[in-house]
Task: structure prediction
Amino acid sequence: MKKGIVTLLLVFGVLSVLPAQSLKNKTVYIAVRSTNLKSSTGFFARTTGTASYGDTFKVLQEKGKWVEVQSSSNSSLKGWVATTNVTTKRITSSSSSVSASADELALAGKGFSAEVEKEYRSAESLNYDAIDRMEVPVVSNEDVYSFLVEGHLATAEE
Result:
C-alpha cells in the first residue's frame, strides 16, 4: 500500500515538472465567432486585425495565456490572441447543402443541437427576447478601459 502511494506521488511529481505542450510553430484555428488580434498581450493593446471562426493561423510564439499568430492566407495579418480563442483541432464544414452561421457551428461544437434548443424553448419561463437584446450592444475596448480606470476597479494593462 505504502509503495503504491509513494509510486503515485513520484509519478505526479515527475509529471508536474515536465513542460506543457508548446503551440509554437503549430497550426491553430479560431474557435470563437470573432476575435481581435492585438499588438501585444494586454487586453487593451491596439487591435491589429480581426479573425473569424475557423480562420487558420500559425503560432509564432507563446507568452503566458497568449499566442502570437500569423494568418495562413494573409501573411500581413498577425497579432496576439488569447489561447482560449484558438484550438489545434481542424474546423471544417463538410456539407455545401447545409448552411450554418458561425454561432451555430460554435454552439454545435459545444453540444447544443436543434433538439436541445427545442427543449429549452419549451420552458415557458425563459425570455429569449431579453437575451437577444443583451447580445446586440458592443462596448469598445476604449470604453471598457475608461470605465475600469475611472472606477478604480483595476490597474488596467494597456
